[in-house]
Amino acid sequence: MWQEWYGQFGDYIDLAAIAVDNQPGAAILPWVDRARATYTVLHDRDNSLYQRFRHPVTSTLLLDEKGRLVRPWKYADPLDSAFRRELSQWAKTGAIPGPWLEEDIANAAAVTQAGQNEVYQLLREATALADRGEHGAASAHLEKALTLDPGNYVLQKQLGVLQRPDDYYKGDMPAINFVWPD
Questions:
Q1: What is the CA radius of gyration of the chain?
Q2: Which of 57, 103, 113, 153 makes a 20 to 30 Å CA pair with 49?
Q3: Where are the domains of the chain?
Q4: CATH for 2-102?
């Protein structure tokens, strides 16, 4: 998806993807290989991006050459025809499409900074526990973090990976399970 767009507009823009996954780096390689990514792919194992900016992982961040946000930071489907038209217009001309200008870019944090620090600490501890093979303890840490930040996609995904690894990392191309347990 993004590779196709990057192949078309790589002369106009730079593209970087960030894989947020607390699994070791080798776990993201099938995704990168399958995408045939020629753009930069970074690995955020500590969920630092979400912790810093409080945006969902599936967000798309578009900056101009001066580092200015040109579109509200939110999910974007590269297969959506309207988004592709807007993205292509922006890449070719540098003009920000009208729909982007009309959207509200405010993002109110749902949890306090103190609570967010605890969430981040629990995730770091869960990662360390999982690295030692203590999946039950790691799951407990993630479940506690989810009580503090229930909308955090990264926490939900990492808990799913620990509890149902075959749903994520099995076969030629892993599939993300977007249906979370209650």
A1: 18
A2: 103
A3: 2-102, 113-167
A4: 3.40.30
